[in-house]
């Protein structure tokens, strides 16, 4: 995990959310601990390439869904346990919401029913995004697609929930290929157009 623990104690989700709403910086909540985000999704310190790819991803999603879904950036919180003070709290890099939102409370700043979650991988967060974070996301009944976007090579990994609820890797996509989601299609090349070639290399 790419973040330093905010304090060495166990928190409830309600305590985390109260603290987070009063904070000027972003924190995530995992397994009873609050983590001050120091990576690309934090208020400051985002990597150049991560920002490039994330902006292109948001733009591509807006064009692809054609109003059929709402597109959210990393400012929208996700809670992984509906109607509970349990679960985890995260800020995905992008979210698709294709139906009416289910909010955690009347503050309307925490969504509990995303349809698709996107994470742009960083060296410091990749293991967590593939492991414990993905496991937490899988607890969301609404979620049917999870997409990982590399920032060091032209590569997009698409995971889908199967008919019996089992998650499978649907595609690993490279240059010239198309990411197909229920709400639209995205050209993988569009996510990397103009990103520094010294950093992003073909898969």
Structure description:
With 203 residues, this protein is of the alpha+beta class. The chain has five helices and 16 strands. The chain has helices at residues 13-21, 48-65, 126-130, 132-137, 188-192; strands at residues 4-5, 27-30, 33-36, 70-73, 77-79, 89-90, 94-97, 110-111, 116-120, 145-149, 153-154, 156-161, 167-173, 178-181, 184-187, 201-202. The strands form five sheets. The chain has a six-stranded mixed β-sheet, covered by helices on one side. It has a three-stranded antiparallel β-sheet with strand order 1-3-2, covered by helices on one side. A hairpin with a 2-residue loop joins strand 2 (27-30) and strand 3 (33-36). The protein starts with a strand and ends with a strand. 38% of the residues are buried.
């Amino acid at each position: 995990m790419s973040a330093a623990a905010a304090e060495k104690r166990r928190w409830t989700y309600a305590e985390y959310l109260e603290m987070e709403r009063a904070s000027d910086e972003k924190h995530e909540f995992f397994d009873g601990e609050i983590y001050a985000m120091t990576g690309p999704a934090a208020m400051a310190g985002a990597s150049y390439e991560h920002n490039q790819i994330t902006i292109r991803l948001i733009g591509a999603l807006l064009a692809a869904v054609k109003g059929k879904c709402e597109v959210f950036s990393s400012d929208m919180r996700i809670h992984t346990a509906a109607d509970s003070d349990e679960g985890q709290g995260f800020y995905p890099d992008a979210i698709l919401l294709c139906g009416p939102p289910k909010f955690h409370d009347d503050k309307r700043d925490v969504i509990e029913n995303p349809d698709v979650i996107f994470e742009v991988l960083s060296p410091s967060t990749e293991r967590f995004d593939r492991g414990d974070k993905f496991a937490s996301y899988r607890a969301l009944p609404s979620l049917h697609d999870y997409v990982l976007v590399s920032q060091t090579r032209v590569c997009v990994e698409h995971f889908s929930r199967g008919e019996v609820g089992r998650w499978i890797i649907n595609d690993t996509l490279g240059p010239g290929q198309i990411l197909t989601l229920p709400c639209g299609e995205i050209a993988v090349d569009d996510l990397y157009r103009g990103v520094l070639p010294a950093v992003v290399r073909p898969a």
